[in-house]
Specification:
Elements: H1 14-34, E1 40-45, E2 48-53, H2 59-67, E3 71-76, E4 81-84, H3 86-91, H4 96-99, H5 110-125, E5 128-135, E6 141-151, E7 160-167, H6 169-221, H7 227-254, H8 257-262, H9 264-279, E8 282-287, H10 296-317, E9 321-329, E10 332-339, H11 360-370, E11 374-379, E12 385-392
Helix pairs in contact: 6-7, 6-11, 9-10, 10-11
Bound molecules: adenosine-5'-triphosphate (ATP) and magnesium ion.
């Protein structure tokens, strides 16, 4: 009897069929993630497996989230990404399926990750915003602002955090351009002031002195019989002397050479003395004598702020007393100029000149920003005004 041929096991076997089915399921899951059709994510954590259901996963809502130019995410409390839109995947330059299920911390530096922690806590109560650098899959960095808010989980006790990630690249670029432009304006302004100061000193003052000298000679030549003309010539000489002094004062203000030679303390004293003599408003100068010279740009910025603040006191404040104080602490230098005048509402500071916005306060703020500092204005009607500028001092290398 012929032996029946041995039967070969049917292929695929049951295991292979099972594996195929699981592969197809994984494929389908990936496809669903890619097309934003995932409503539920299972996360294996310390507390075992947890199922997170995405709230409001209707088509219209999803279409809206997917069409945003901001990254939109939902996260667990330990910052595992449950859902991310395509825009966020573009930000981090990774396929969406790689983003979902990963930790949001993997896109941050260690420092940013540490700063995020207290913000997440605050998010539970009121929502929070912060700026940070997003580390993309290809190693590139992107400045972003993230807004975090805890979403109330209706069907689950687990905390879900909603996050919107806004790309700040363009805003940063505009900010940098503005800063560069401001720096250039300040430099050009100083150079122009220097040129005008020199012209005034070299030409106008010299000319006024020469005419003054001539009028004195004329007065000397006139005999006693021409008494009225002689008196007139002497008065003319005095007037010319006064005009020459005034031009010198303007020239000094335009280009404070004495700042380079004597330093900020001396210039603050001289400016205050001159202001009181001219306007009759008393200035109390308080604070420390700075032990060392500050960088030239810092001294110049503080001096320009003082000038502009005193100009405002003279023009607008109707003050009786002014306080000027200079102090150094916590790696920075502060200058405060306070007056007891009429004050104003800083939020509505239109000038009286046809409702035009003045440039003084704006210029002071730019001066402070130029050297990395900040300016604050505290004022209220009938409550005086305090202008404060604080500039950080970078320790010498
Ligand atoms: N010390 C002050 N006391 C009272 N009001 C002030 C004081 N400083 C500023 N202000 C008010 O704020 C407004 C804006 O001041 P800012 O220096 O910016 O412009 P301005 O002095 O009007 O014009 P500009 O400085 O360009 O000549 C002033 O018009 C004035 O109403
Ligand atoms: Mg002004």
């Amino acid at each position: 009897m012929k032996k029946a041929p041995e039967k070969i096991a049917p292929a695929p076997s049951r295991e292979v069929a099972e594996l195929r089915a699981r592969l197809a399921e994984a494929d389908e899951t990936l496809r669903a993630i890619r097309h934003g059709e995932v409503d539920t994510v299972m996360v294996a954590g310390k507390q075992g497996r947890q199922v997170f259901t995405l709230q409001g996963a209707e088509l219209a809502y999803r279409a809206l989230i997917e069409s945003m130019n901001e990254g939109a995410l939902t996260l667990t409390a330990d910052k595992t990404i449950l859902y991310a839109n395509q825009c966020f995947a573009r930000f981090v330059k990774l396929p969406l399926e790689q983003v979902i299920g990963s930790s949001f911390r993997s896109f941050l530096s260690v420092e940013d990750s540490a700063t995020l922690r207290p913000h997440m806590k605050q998010a539970a109560h009121s929502g929070a915003k912060m700026q940070m650098m997003l580390h993309a899959g290809d190693g590139s960095l992107r400045p972003v602002q993230i807004s975090v808010r805890e979403l109330a989980g209706k069907n689950t006790d687990a905390v879900i955090i909603g996050m919107v990630v806004t790309d700040m690249t363009e805003a940063r670029r505009t900010e940098e351009m503005l800063r560069a432009l401001t720096n250039r304006v300040v430099q050009v302004q100083e150079a122009e002031r220097g040129r005008v100061a020199l012209e005034l000193h070299d030409h106008i003052t010299q000319l006024l002195c020469a005419i003054g000298f001539r009028s004195q000679t004329l007065a000397n030549k006139l005999s006693a019989r021409d008494a009225p003309a002689k008196k007139e010539a002497i008065a003319l000489g005095k007037l010319l002397g006064g005009a020459a002094e005034e031009v010198e004062r303007i020239s000094r203000h335009l280009r404070p050479g004495v700042l380079d030679q004597l330093g900020l303390n001396a210039v603050l004293r001289a400016t205050s003395r001159e202001f009181t003599q001219r306007t009759g408003v008393a200035i109390a100068l308080t604070g420390v004598e700075l032990a060392t010279r500050l960088p030239h740009d810092t001294e110049l910025a503080l001096y320009r702020v003082l000038q502009e603040a005193l100009r405002n006191v003279e023009q607008h404040a109707r003050a009786k007393n002014v306080n000027v104080s200079l102090s150094q602490s916590d790696g920075g230098v502060q200058l405060a100029i306070g007056d007891d005048g009429v004050g104003f509402d800083p939020d509505r500071r239109l000038t009286k000149r046809k409702g035009k916005r003045g440039l003084g306060l704006l210029g002071m703020r730019e001066r402070a920003n130029y050297v990395g500092g900040a300016l604050t204005v505290k004022s209220a009607p009938r409550a005086g005004t305090v202008i404060k500028v604080r500039i950080p001092l970078v320790p010498a290398a």
